[in-house]
Amino acid sequence: MSIQFQLEAQPFSSVSTDAIVAYVFGDKEPRLEGSVAELDRATGGKIKPLADSGELTGKFLEMIQIHYPQGLAAKKLLLVGAGKRDKFSHAELRKISGAALRYLRSRGVKSFAFLAGENERTPAAAQAIVEGFLHAEYDSDKYQTDKKPNRAIERVALIGFPADSRADIEAAIERAKIIGESEIFARDMINEPSNRLTPRMLASRAETMAKETGLELDILDEKRIAELKMGALLGVAQGSAEPPRLIVVRYRPGQKKANSPVLALVGKAVTFDTGGISIKPANNMEEMKTDMSGGATMLAVLRALARLKPSIEVMAVVPATENMPGGRAQKPGDVQIAMSGKSIEVINTDAEGRLILADAICYAKKLGATHLIDAATLTGAIVVALANVHVGAFGTPREFLDRVLESARAQGEKMWPMPIDDEYQEMIKSKIADIRNTGSGKGGGSITAAWFLKEFAEDTPWVHLDIAGTAWRDDVKPWSASGPTGIAVRTLIDFALKM
């Protein structure tokens, strides 16, 4: 059931709903100011004693609930800690709104109102609040037959926003819905078991999405892939009974300016990765259904851009395959010839993502891409470097990478710039081919993987996002379920709209 959002103009004291949510800042002590001070007065001083006793501190995501508050038409008042004011941004606002939704939903609440603070009564803040709600609403329980009692939020009102900016706030809510629903589109695909999302099934979902949104679509089957001499992609696919697909979805603006950039979003979509002949350990191998997260991300971005309509042309290029250890599988030591003509010595068949991305990057350039961004669950090495906190971000020239990182900061998605010095290029040189698919040294695995991709991006402005540590979350957060995170969807939408 989707949530109904509305912008409520009446005073918060008269809003009839199951709960009102407000947030409280706390430095050395909680700050009862602005709307929180008004709530305290409206309730006959119910909040100040909580602060005086130390029960209410304003610590980030602290939850204090008051039942049947005097002076309010709402049945409950939920106070959420917002942390320190000087560290507060829209990223924290998303988490607060999401955490409030999950907290109230677990307690059977069906509707509530969210009271924005004085400094957050802007369209951008309203968008962040609604994005937080939609991110929090998602759960990875699609295949559970023993469902919990029906607990779903049906309606959420946003209150406290100025009447004279109503049209802008409503437009921001609609943008948030487009972005949030597209993020859920990606998370749904990432969550799918590999038997229910093969390369052909992924292509079918892309086809349905493209028809619904009016996007151009081209799906290359194994015959067309072979005709284009995509030896790197075919080398990975040859061990599986499932044929590969290369999915291309394109958005073209109504009025394209001369010499305007063409942005290609290239996403790795290995719908299941056993590691091939260099097979992975059995422990946790089921998580390799998520090795198509990059592809799902790029399709989701195009889904949103079809409705948000940036002024530049954007395409998603998604190579989709399984990586299996069948009798026809490529072997360590094999040499594959990529679409670009480069020869690749396959040292480790579990370093397959960079192989399929190589041909996809080359094809994106053939289709006219002037700028490239790829996203992939590419290396375990990035998890060693950054754990599950930051996306590893590589790119050249640095100015192009910085623009992507600026969008990431604006959207509260943590990305960290990684080095791509020339010394790392030496590590992927092969003695029998042009390059090898793993580095020759003992370290720097995520960097040598990025350098491999740069060999195919060449001089085209390019950014590589290694999302191996961030695309999936094992633990539940107050604002988010465990499972697929949808990382980078918001960043790339923001970047495309600003480019």
What does this protein look like?
The chain is of the alpha/beta class. It has 2 domains: 4-165, Leucine Aminopeptidase, subunit E, domain 1 (3-Layer(aba) Sandwich), CATH 3.40.220.10; 179-498, Aminopeptidase (3-Layer(aba) Sandwich). Helices cover 35% and strands 21% of the residues. The protein has helices spanning 34-42, 48-53, 90-105, 123-137, 166-191, 199-213, 222-227, 231-237, 293-308, 353-366, 381-386, 398-411, 445-457, 489-498, and strands spanning 4-7, 19-26, 30-31, 63-67, 76-83, 111-115, 155-159, 216-220, 245-251, 262-267, 269-273, 313-323, 335-337, 343-345, 371-376, 391-396, 415-417, 435-436, 462-466, 472-473, 483-484. Helix 9 (293-308) links the parallel strand 11 and strand 12 (313-323). Helix 4 (123-137) packs parallel to helix 5.
List the topology elements.
Layout lengths: L3 E4 L11 E8 L3 E2 L2 H9 L5 H6 L9 E5 L8 E8 L6 H16 L5 E5 L7 H15 L17 E5 L6 H26 L7 H15 L2 E5 L1 H6 L3 H7 L7 E7 L10 E6 L1 E5 L19 H16 L4 E11 L11 E3 L5 E3 L7 H14 L4 E6 L4 H6 L4 E6 L1 H14 L3 E3 L17 E2 L8 H13 L4 E5 L5 E2 L9 E2 L4 H10 L1
Parallel strand pairs: 1-7, 2-5, 2-6, 6-7, 10-12, 10-15, 11-12, 14-18, 15-19, 16-17
Antiparallel strand pairs: 2-3, 4-5, 8-9, 9-12, 13-14, 16-19, 20-21
Helix pairs in contact: 3-4, 4-5, 5-9, 6-9, 8-10, 9-14, 10-13, 12-14
- Largest sheet, described in full? 9 strands, mixed
Gross geometry: elongated
Helical coverage, percent range: 25-40%
What would the average pLDDT be, to the nearest integer?
96
How many H/I helical runs?
Answer: 14
What gyration radius follows from the Cα positions, in whole Å?
A: 24 Å
Strand percentage lies at: 15-25%
CATH superfamily of the largest domain: Zn peptidases
